[in-house]
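Hi C.,

You asked whether I'd gotten around to modeling the 189-residue construct. I have! Everything is below, sequence then structure, no commentary in between.
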Amino acid sequence: MSEAEDSHSTVLVVDDDKPFCAALAGSLRRRGCAAIVAHNFDDAMAEAEAWAPDRAVVDLRMPGRGGLELVAALRKLDPTMAIVVLTGFGSIASAIEAIKLGATYYLTKPAEPDEILRAFERVEPTIVEPPSPHAAKPLDELEWEHLQQVLTDCNGNVSEAARRLGMHRRSLQRKLARGRPSHEPPEAP
């Protein structure tokens, strides 16, 4: 979409982190989009019904009804809406579920506003090359994926996920707060 077409785009930004939500909405406005903000499922649906946005940026984890439920509800409200799921707790399991429910694309935080706008334009599913059998995932990456899968199965309920995993709720919260493990090589001095 060209910059001129972007100026006619209305984007619903949904995130329970109010400062982040305001900053992202401001960045989108500076790029010519009309931006509407909401901080939970109910407010997002009310804004979507009132403003009929053609795009939405949805946080995956929010108190109450989560981002996956919101993706499904927004898709039902407007089947043509482009929806990008944005989360700090990304996993393959939640990405697959978001796409199945109708999300256009799935990004992990931090994501730049231009990256989000490019994600709206994706029309073909991204084909990911399977890892070679000789390149095993690190154990902490496998653990992260498993935690995310169980959390997705529990609809974001940390207490239920901890019970199913056989661990203390606070231990699970600490692991989730650390975020996805990074295995990038250290920068040279």
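If it helps when you're writing up: Residues 1-6, 125-131 have pLDDT under 50 and may be disordered.

Thanks,
B.
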